[in-house]
Amino acid sequence: MNSHITSARDVPARLFAAFDAGDIDALDTLVSPDLVDHNLPPEAPSAIEGMKGMVAAMRDGFTNPHHEIVYQAETDDGWVVSQWVVTATHTGPWFGLPATGREVTCSGIDLARVVDGRIVEVRHVEELLQLQMQMQMQLTD
Q: With contact defined as beta carbons under 8 Å apart, do 23 and 55 qualify?
C-alpha cells in the first residue's frame, strides 16, 4: 500500500461527508448503481438502495453526525481501506430504538474499490453492538 493522497481516497471521504449531511443524492455521483456490497443483510434492497436507506436512517435518527477518518490507505489497483469513527446525538428513532438524546460513538472499517471516481465494490464492518449498547444504556438510566 502507498501512503500518498489520490483521488480514489477522496471518494470514501466524500461518502462519509454525504452520510454526515444526510445527502442521499450525492450517492448517485459517488457510488456505482451496480455496487456490489459483500455485507448486505438478508432481504436487503440492492446495494445502492440499501446505502441510500442507511443515509436516510442516519439523517432521521441522529443530529450532528461527524465521521473522522482514523486511518486510510490505498492499493495500486483502486482499493481504499478506511478506518473511521462517527459521533452523533441520538435524536430520532434508530431501528426500533426511540430517541435518547445521548451522544453516541460508533467505529468501523470499510474496504472500497473505486473505479472512475465511484465505489463499485465494498466490504464493511461497523460496531453496531457498540452503538446499540450506548443507546440502550440511556433507556435504562
A: yes
Secondary structure E strands in the chain: 31-37, 62-74, 79-90, 103-115, 118-126
Find all residues with CB under 8 Å of 117, minimum gap 6, and list them. Answer: 7, 11
- Report residue 48: phi and psi, to 5°: -70, -40
Please say if the pLDDT value at position 3 is more than 50.
no
Q: Which helix (H) or strand (E) holds 91?
A: none
What's the predicted TM-score (pTM) here?
0.87
Q: Tell me the average pLDDT of the chain.
A: 90
| Residue type (1 letter), 40 | L
Distance CA 113, CA 121 (A): 5
The residue type found at 112 is: A
